[in-house]
């Protein structure tokens, strides 16, 4: 809660959120640039559909584990010691992906990338909450996360397919996209403050629960945190199965050209970019629970119509834009304001880490591996049933959430809801 006797440092708020958002955008770019490059990589390295599912899956699994670990660690050691090394190292791993000689080396490199990106993720969300004014928390946490969709799913396919026209091979693309991460790491070193200094100790996000125990045991006493973990699994199943398998679906099943594929898949990024600050921003006005339910319904309807769409690139783009707007918007809403407002005092990063970890381990790890198996054995067109089932299940689970938006419940009611 803001202290009225001290002016709010709006300049720091926007500088830090911008850098943290650009950093998370590079997380998305470095993570997902492999999907539009995979058709070229598969030809050179002799890889099949199961390989792309496994590569997406191993990164998600390691990401999930280290999101849990680093979230708790950053509550103890601070944000800077986690965020700055993480962005430097995941950028380095992105470049090294271009030096892989086969599936084994790719798996090792992408696992190490998941370690670093998983460490960056929950800590960056908590750092944004520490810098953001409570009245703008949902919007700014969503805005910080929206870079992931814009760079990873929106610009990534366009960058990859266009660079392939001018660089000698797909290997060079990984190094080109790695360079900006080193610059953002320097920016965070110069700008980012620890939570206690971020706004002079003016931000209080959560209050303690009754009952004994601390750490993860305390976090898991929150019904909302458990529900956040489940709803994030549902949303991420949709996002990451599509993110990993869609380029091959468009090229191999719908017979689009690589450039047409790049255009269509970029809709995931542009739709997600708008959704990741739009959906949490709307929840500031209409409440977290209602917004989440409506967005899951919108995602289910959009996936259903996408499944029946033919090779018309404009139709595919519009439908995929809607799928991503709702699904990635919900990812930002769940991991941002809902998890933040449901966390015990002093355990914000731990709570976000648990939520992100659960979503990543299943939605980002297990689900893409299953998707690879389905594509390899039953046809790549059948992967679209997984996103549909995921978001439909999300509708049901989100109905049980307790409202946390300050505009709807106030601080004391939010505390009781947890």
Summarize the topology.
Blueprint: H1 10-32, H2 34-45, H3 49-77, H4 80-97, H5 103-131, H6 137-163, H7 170-191, H8 195-198, H9 215-219, H10 223-253, H11 258-286, H12 288-307, H13 313-341, H14 348-378, H15 385-398, H16 406-417
Explain the overall architecture.
- The structure is a single chain.
- With 418 residues, the protein is an all-alpha fold.
- The protein has one domain: Growth Hormone, Chain: A, CATH 1.20.1250.
- It starts with 9 loop residues before the first helix and ends with a helix.
- The C terminus is likely disordered.
**CATH-assigned homologous superfamily:** MFS general substrate transporter like domains
- Helix fraction, binned, reads over 70%
> Structural class of the helices, strands and pairings?
mainly alpha
User: Per DSSP, what share of the residues sits in E-state strands of 2 or more residues?
Assistant: under 5%
The number of distinct β-strands equals 0
Write a brief caption for the model:
By secondary structure, this protein is mainly alpha-helical.
Provide keyphrases for this structure:
80% helix; 418 residues; 16 helices; Growth Hormone, Chain: A; mainly alpha; single chain
């Amino acid at each position: 809660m803001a202290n009225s006797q001290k002016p709010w440092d709006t300049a720091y708020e926007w500088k830090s959120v911008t850098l943290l958002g650009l950093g998370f955008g590079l997380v998305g770019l470095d993570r997902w640039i492999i999907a539009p490059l995979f058709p070229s990589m598969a030809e050179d390295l002799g890889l099949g559909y199961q390989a792309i599912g496994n590569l997406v899956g191993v990164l998600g699994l390691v990401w999930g584990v280290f999101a849990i670990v680093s979230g708790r660690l950053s509550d103890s050691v601070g944000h800077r010691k986690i965020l700055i090394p993480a962005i430097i190292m995941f950028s380095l791993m992105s470049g090294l992906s271009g030096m892989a000689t086969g599936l084994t080396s790719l798996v090792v490199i992408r696992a190490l990338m998941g370690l670093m990106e998983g460490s960056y993720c929950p800590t960056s969300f908590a750092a944004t909450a520490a810098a953001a004014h409570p009245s703008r928390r949902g919007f700014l946490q969503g805005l910080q996360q929206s870079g992931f969709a814009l760079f990873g799913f929106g610009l990534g396919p366009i960058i990859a397919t266009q660079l392939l026209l001018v660089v000698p091979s797909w290997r060079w693309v990984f190094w080109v996209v790695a360079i900006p991460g080193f610059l953002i790491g320097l920016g965070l070193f110069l700008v980012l403050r620890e939570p206690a200094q971020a706004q002079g100790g003016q931000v209080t996000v959560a209050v303690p629960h009754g009952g004994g125990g601390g750490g993860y045991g305390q976090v898991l006493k929150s019904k909302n945190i458990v529900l956040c973990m489940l709803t994030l699994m549902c949303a991420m199943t949709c996002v990451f199965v599509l993110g990993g398998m869609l380029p091959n679906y468009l090229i191999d099943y719908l017979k689009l050209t690589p450039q047409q594929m790049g255009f269509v898949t970029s809709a995931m990024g542009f739709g997600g970019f708008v959704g990741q600050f739009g959906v949490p921003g709307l929840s500031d006005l209409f409440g977290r629970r209602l917004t989440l339910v409506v967005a899951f319904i919108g995602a289910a309807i959009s996936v259903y119509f996408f499944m029946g769409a033919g090779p018309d690139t404009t139709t595919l783009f519009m439908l995929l834009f809607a799928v991503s707007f709702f699904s990635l918007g919900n990812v930002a809403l769940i991991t941002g304001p809902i998890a933040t407002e449901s966390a015990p005092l002093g355990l914000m990063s731990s709570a976000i880490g648990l939520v992100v970890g659960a979503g990543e381990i299943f939605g980002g790890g297990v689900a893409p591996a299953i998707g690879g198996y389905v594509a390899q054995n039953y046809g790549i067109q059948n992967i679209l049933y997984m996103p549909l089932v995921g978001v439909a299940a999300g509708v049901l689970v989100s109905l049980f959430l307790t409202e946390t938006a300050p505009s709807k419940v106030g601080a004391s009611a939010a505390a009781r809801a947890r």
